From TrEMBL:
Keyword Lipid metabolism: no
InterPro entries: Acyl_CoA_acyltransferase, GNAT_dom
Protein name, entry field: GNAT family N-acetyltransferase
Species whose genome carries this gene: Streptomyces coeruleorubidus
Domain N-acetyltransferase: 29-181
Keywords, alphabetical: Transferase
Organismal lineage: Bacteria, Bacillati, Actinomycetota, Actinomycetes, Kitasatosporales
UniProt-listed PROSITE patterns: GNAT
Recorded GO MF terms: acyltransferase activity, transferring groups other than amino-acyl groups
Length: 190
């Protein structure tokens, strides 16, 4: 089996004032919280956004595993819609010590390069900072963090840094080389 050296960068914001919001994109783009836990919808977003950039860790999750995850207090999915069509999403997860991780963030391939990503990331980071306002018993957020890697889109790191995230850790690890699963075979233009 061949391997691939993958660099993972971890970034953080340590105060709400660190967030540098992007301007909203032109057109009818809305960001809406998916309030009803839906394994089918969440798996669709995960596979559709990450299919060409090698997101594989959740592909084997059962319906029950998805539901268990989505029903946890402090887990939220925020979806960007372009004229009513899902364009991308951001998943937040409350962690110990008043920390919120942006676990997943990205756009479906057809919506990349249209200024939706900066807006969605801004919106998602703002919702990470006010997560405790929506969940009784959660401590107000003191830190928001995320990670990106060398397999992600070419503009990912720049978008994170332009939104005010600061690098705090870098790791390089060998990973098995896999074929991008895509949401289905042949879904992406060559």
């Amino acid at each position: 089996m061949t391997t691939l050296a993958v660099t993972t960068w971890s970034l953080e914001q340590t105060a709400p004032t660190d967030l540098l919001p992007a301007a909203p994109p032109d057109g009818d783009v809305r960001v809406v919280r998916s309030e009803v836990p839906s394994p089918e919808f969440s798996r669709f977003l995960y596979a559709s956004v990450g299919g060409d950039i090698l997101w594989t860790d959740r592909l084997s999750w059962s319906y029950a595993r998805w539901l268990e995850h989505l029903e946890r207090p402090g887990v939220e999915t925020w979806v960007a819609y372009d004229r009513g069509t899902p364009a991308g999403y951001v998943e937040l997860e409350a962690q110990d010590d008043a920390v919120v991780e942006i676990v997943y963030f990205g756009l479906l391939p057809a919506f990349r390069g249209r200024r939706i990503g900066g807006h969605l990331l801004s919106y998602g980071a703002a919702r990470a900072w006010d997560l405790a306002d929506r969940w009784a018993g959660l401590t107000p957020t003191k830190r928001v963090w995320l990670h990106t890697c060398s397999k992600d889109g070419e503009h990912a790191m720049d978008n994170y840094q332009r939104r005010g995230f600061k690098l705090f850790d870098t790791k390089v690890e060998e990973e098995p080389e896999v074929t991008a699963p895509g949401p289905w075979p042949g879904a992406f233009p060559v």
